[in-house]
């Protein structure tokens, strides 16, 4: 299946999924997350296990991450409320630290980290690398990318931390790239509970994508030549 056809198929699947959700209102589940640290903060609105809005405190605005074919959901005044909640959260954090100064902090390093592509690998065709990290506490992790040992920021984006059922968090980073033979990408994760960063590598080394069609044609040609040779041999034997 061509890339465009695959993307269309994926989009139709998502559209059907969202239509099913809209048709079964009683199956909806909503949730919200608000948290803070000394240097970071988080405010996320969740519907049916998907983030429908989150606050980007660096850009000072609210973000709607759902794809464009989903009926828009707006939260007027939610960003301003999130900013106010952060002030309250940091004050509560200060009070909690004073009250629990002798209680050790709970720190869990990531339990799993994987790197993979969104589409089947095809050389010189744009694709997306996914770096998925889960099982850590507290949030967030810091995720960085490299290409051939050089740091890459263009085409990279990282989601907000998302809670697991056990109270830990998961987070995903994406990198748009065009696969070229011999390129090596890496995803590095830093977390307060890690003694040293975790790194996973992805090497573009799939020679079958280049040699496959040529080898197939070569085999077909060989079979054809053998067939002609066998025919000539049988013809000669028949004339004898």
Automatic annotation (TrEMBL):
The chain crosses the membrane at residues 210-236. It comes from the Eukaryota. Residues 110-199 form the Ig-like domain. The keyword Transmembrane applies. The keyword Cell division does not apply. Pfam families: C1-set (PF07654), MHC_II_alpha (PF00993). One of its GO terms (cellular component) is MHC class II protein complex. It is a single-pass type I membrane protein. Belongs to the MHC class II family. This is Ig-like domain-containing protein. It comes from Astatotilapia calliptera.
């Amino acid at each position: 299946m061509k890339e465009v056809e695959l993307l269309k198929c994926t989009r139709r699947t998502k559209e059907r999924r969202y239509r099913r959700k809209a048709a079964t209102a009683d199956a909806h589940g909503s949730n919200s997350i608000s948290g803070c640290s000394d240097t970071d903060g988080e405010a996320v609105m969740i519907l049916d296990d998907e983030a429908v809005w989150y606050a980007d405190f660096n850009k000072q605005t609210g973000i709607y991450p759902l794809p464009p074919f989903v009926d828009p959901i707006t939260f007027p005044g939610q960003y301003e409320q999130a900013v106010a909640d952060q002030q309250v959260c940091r004050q509560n954090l200060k009070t909690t630290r004073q009250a629990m100064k002798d209680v050790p902090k709970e720190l869990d390093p990531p339990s799993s980290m994987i790197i993979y592509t969104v589409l089947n690998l095809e050389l010189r065709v744009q694709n997306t690398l996914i770096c998925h990290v889960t099982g850590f506490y507290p949030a967030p992790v810091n995720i960085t990318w490299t290409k051939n040992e050089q740091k890459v920021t263009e085409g990279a984006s990282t989601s907000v931390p998302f809670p697991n059922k056990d109270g830990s968090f998961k987070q995903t980073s994406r990198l748009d790239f065009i696969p070229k033979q011999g390129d090596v990408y890496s995803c590095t994760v830093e977390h307060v509970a890690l003694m040293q960063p975790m790194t996973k590598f992805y090497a573009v080394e799939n020679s079958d994508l280049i040699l496959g069609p040529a080898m197939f044609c070569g085999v077909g040609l060989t079979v054809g030549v053998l067939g002609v040779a066998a025919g000539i041999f049988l013809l000669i034997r028949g004339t004898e």
